[in-house]
């Protein structure tokens, strides 16, 4: 089948991670259609040209509106700050392009719903980049739960701890500006915990949440006398109820000194428990009541055998994977879905459901009461 021409809008952290995924997916996964890294787009001409050379794109552009209208482009990948996700994704859908979008889907529930309506009306494939679902150990967690090996699920405990904003001297950046980012740790990283909760346990029906901003103003980079007000949360904490009767806690912060990308969940069922830590992403901690008494206890499994999804395409057992591989796995499943006229998951429907939980958490933090999703 023919190559699929990709346009990437945005070239910062996620732009680099996605570019790496498009470069790696062909040689290691041989998708039905190989991605052609056609054009990378950004506002700064010199910056985007530097990114084009470094990341291996054919062309660099600065006008995303022209790029999404190009007849040779089939897939538009949105890696910009959240305030432009809706505008770009909707324009791409209207132009008949498949759309891949970074999380959270949008900066508001209304925009997320508009994006879903646009891709559904256009009949194009759509996916949101909650890449952690495609860590092989998370896939194993899903399989264990689906096979009933934990029994009835009672607890989901999600913590996503980073510390890159814990120093008050760290300068202001777009993720601290509500108009650009929509929210702080809540949308940026609690959205990942919410997605994993939905993927592994099920839909969340009500929440009670608290949001905290520890550092109210920060200096602008290079301009120590110019202070900017932080208009988002530094930390988000919530209790959640699931439709299936399970209960959960979700905590996300960028102020947890010493924690770098500590995205962990623990799930307790009637028959056992599992736990995953992104910083040790090749491992899954498991505990099963069914183990014989002398062997019963939490044990750590190395999830690198070829029996697990994606693993066999890389290296032999024990030759561990990393953060970037979760993006390659995600892009592979996206392209395979496009090649078979399918819709991958998580898609914009998942993005809207995630946004509903985020929205409920923000409402609850304002009222101090439980909020229904
Ligand atoms: C936050 O710093 C961040 O870059 C998130 O935006 C990403 O989604 C996460 O994968 C890593 O941390």
Please describe what this structure looks like:
The mean pLDDT is 98. The longest helix is centred in the C-terminal third of the chain and has 20 residues, at 348-367. The chain is 34% helix and 26% strand. A hairpin with a 4-residue loop joins strand 11 (235-242) and strand 12 (247-253). The protein is α/β, with parallel strands linked by helices. It has 2 domains: 4-132, NAD(P)-binding Rossmann-like Domain (Rossmann fold), CATH 3.40.50.720; 136-280 and 282-321 and 353-367, 2-Layer Sandwich (Dihydrodipicolinate Reductase, domain 2), CATH 3.30.360. The strands form 3 sheets. Strands 16-15-14-13-7-12-11-8-17 form a 9-stranded mixed β-sheet. The structure holds alpha-L-sorbopyranose. Alpha-L-sorbopyranose binds next to helix 8.
Q: CATH H-level name of the largest domain... which superfamily? A: Dihydrodipicolinate Reductase, domain 2
Query: What class would the helix/strand composition place it in?
Result: alpha/beta
CATH fold field value of the largest domain: Dihydrodipicolinate Reductase, domain 2
Radius of gyration (CA) equals 21 Å
Ligands: alpha-L-sorbopyranose
Q: Percent range for helical residues? A: 25-40%
- Report the principal-axis shape: globular
Which terms summarize this structure?
single chain; 373 residues; Rossmann fold; Dihydrodipicolinate Reductase, domain 2; 2 domains; 9-stranded mixed sheet; 6-stranded parallel sheet; 10 helices; 17 strands; binds alpha-L-sorbopyranose
What does this entry show, briefly?
This protein has 373 residues and is of the alpha/beta class.
